[in-house]
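Hi R.,

Here's the input for the adenosine-5'-diphosphate complex you asked about:
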Amino acid sequence: MHVLHVSAECYPAAKTGGLGDVVGALPKYLNDAGVDASVIIPKYSLKWFAEQEWEILFTGQVRMHIWGVPYQVQRLVNGDLGFQLYVVHIPGKFDRAGVYSDQNGYFGDSFERWICFQQAVLQWILLTQLPITHIHCHDHHTGLIPFMMRYCSIYQDLQGMPSFLTIHNGGYQGRYSWSNNYLLPYYDPYAAGMLDWENSINMLGSAIKCCWAFNTVSPSYLEEMKTSSLGLEGLLNLEWMKGSGIVNGIDTEVWDPRTDPMIGVHLKDDDFLSYKRGNKAILCERFGLDPGLPILTFIGRMVHQKGVDVLSDAIWSIVQHTKQIQFVILGSGEAIYEDPYKSLAHHHGDQVKTIIQYNEALSHQLYAGSDFLLMPSREEPCGLNQLYSMRYGTIPMVRRTGGLQDTVIDVDDWQGTGICFDQLTTGDLIHSFYRAMRLYQHKSRLYSIMQEAMTRDHSWERVAQDYIAWYKYYMGIE
Ligand code: ADP
Ligand code: GLC
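And here is the predicted structure with adenosine-5'-diphosphate in place:
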């Protein structure tokens, strides 16, 4: 088997969230398990790309309406990612300083960009006759690939190749007006329905219809999508036979408290206390926090999905009632969600530290040095932060939804390692803050829960086997 992963993100090249982490890790562990796996993403004008050495493998041109769009497929020459990384260089479309947006906002030509990228990938596969046995698409950006393989005459030689889809986030579907139809390559007109969902071209919907099999990144999220997925519920129920739920793994080589070059104090000889206290001391020194009080941290995209609006309200409320709690907020996103945190830091700067940034190194230091990690998500298809925090001995505080529900057990239940709550309300959040403060008073229990959390096995070694079994099942391989 040789699987080609097609994605918008791949760590360390391009990452805005968990999609990048997954695509940067799963192929490595598939290779280790004996399945050849490589990755193809667009080539962005980001720092990492400029620092690497690239070999041009292929030069071609795809058609978009009356225009020819030239592209190059390049291969990473240096670097040791554990898999072969290919990039598609499409001048004018992806050579920008951001994946989906830059400092001026979201890119307005996303349909054209993803159509060109997906076509370039298919054309390259066809013309270079790569020994690929199947294609694995990630999220809506690559969602028209299964359709094009089946219904576009220029790609019909790929008709028999199995295509798989992983849905990382059904909240983003790639919905476009039918007025964009002219930009698509010629397809069998009878197949127009395979592009359509609710009178729009829906890239995610089309992928669900046309792929051989799809999965979500946790079983609970798959069930949730059947009843609530921004209009795709009916489709999910129709196509249920093709759907599975596989919880993400984490890259335990990158995320290792024993060796992580981004953290100040490593875990040595299982001396948990020196590790935890050492990293907390560094954080406190840097941000002027009190090491004697609990630190509750949020790391993530500042968007509606993450429940950050309710979280800021709950923090406003608790800091007015007690000084015995501290918060660190690291994130960036939409201004309406960022602003309350700036204001909190302004008015309660001794208790709330706000860092509006994307900062990979700081995120590692926060997983290592905080006491609790907040995830009050409205939806969470899987969530990786709670897995990283447990690996670094930090107790996750999660709303029971999607993958959070599948990976975190409440401390009051058997072998629990987290604080769980059901409703996204300030009431539930404030109650959880008090639970955290109470737990923090009982240091022997606190430390034993933190250490228990570190033993949880969410490694890709195990999950890669689930993916291999999934591929084989739908490809009819014993
Ligand atoms: P999502 O993919 O929905 O954003 P996940 O929990 O799956 O959520 O993954 C988020 C990933 O992005 C984690 O690796 C997290 O550490 C990282 N991340 C999110 N926001 C930031 C930030 N502001 N700075 C550094 N890392 C961040
Ligand atoms: C998405 C989801 C997140 C998941 C990640 C990786 O961005 O929001 O829950 O962990 O993809 O699969």
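One thing worth noting: The first helix runs from residue 18 to 23.

Cheers,
M.
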